[in-house]
Amino acid sequence: xxxxxxxxxxxxxxxxxxxxxxxxxxxxxxxxxxxxxxxxxxxxxxxxxxxxxxxxxxxxxxxxxxxxxxxxxxxxxxxxxxxxxxxxxxxxxxxxxxxxxxxxxxxxxxxxxxxxxxxxxxxxxxxxxxxxxxxxxxxxxxxxxxxxxxxxxxxxxxxxxxxxxxxxxxxxxxxxxxxxxxxxxxxxxxxxxxxxxxxxxxxxxxxxxxxxxxxxxxxxxxxxxxxxxxxxxxxxxxxxxxxxxxxxxxxxxxxxxxxxxxxxxxxxxxxxxxxxxxxxxxxxxxxxxxxxxxxxxxxxxxxxxxxxxxxxxxxxxxxxxxxxxxxxxxxxxxxxxxxxxxxxxxxxxxxxxxxxxxxxxxxxxxxxxxxxxxxxxxxxxxxxxxxxxxxxxxxxxxxxxxxxxxxxx
Length: 409
Prior knowledge:
single chain
């Protein structure tokens, strides 16, 4: 039940309310298990959750067929270990006489046990999520707090705490409800439910004025285009001109809507921008023709210590055709964009499917975009008068980096 509720909390189901009770069956069941059973059943909860919420991995064309399925199974099996560790720790918190909760609540009122249990279990959940997001390059896919993204008021808390605070709050509600449903004294447990719901209402109350303030600020009109180039054609040199023609057409169509920025996808440029003259000139001429800044995803190459290094980059092309600024991806995908420990085991590249040989960037970039076609005029949007600035600041993440909130500048 917990696995299903967790899956439904995230895309493509998008039912954030399910996350508020998703951990309850799991936490209640832990009360009747031994420590090893707690780990085993918790591992199963995690395995089913990741298999269901990461099934899209089997459709990656770079690892088609059995390799995609094997990679999906191995990754899910690994990520489920974190759920197993959480279940084991949560079981210790609930039952063990040596637990933190027990030691801090001896000779105290029963309701303090439930409050402390809520605090400790929620903090343990966030600690496990943080570890999952950083250990061995990290994979913070579907952190509990991400389930609340459809509820804009709720996620304003992330402006202070990051996603960790939202995860903590959702875990606290689940722990309180589990104590109420699975405890012996439901009247005492109600106090922890009231406390958790109070925190939930407080987060919503905090988010409301922030949303109202955001609605009255400047609005930037952005166009996003997607060429949908098949992976097997993407780096075929014979397809280079065809790919560029498609993106040129889409860019001109988008420019007709007068956006202040047009964004291309990750590595959409079929060549090395700034190194391959023909590719670079066509994109520069496109920016000049449309008079709109272009943020294009492209591989870049640089010479460092007599060695060519490739980066997965985003480059801002100004309306005068200048390659104005660039961001090099900081957090690369292991076994996708590089092979971990390749220097110690170079034979891995020979036995694995084709894998990129990128190096990570070293610093973040704050872009300054200015559109020649927009002079800060006012326009009507959603029946209210808003201002469109002629220049604005922004940063970008690339693909896998979206999972790591601490990368945001």
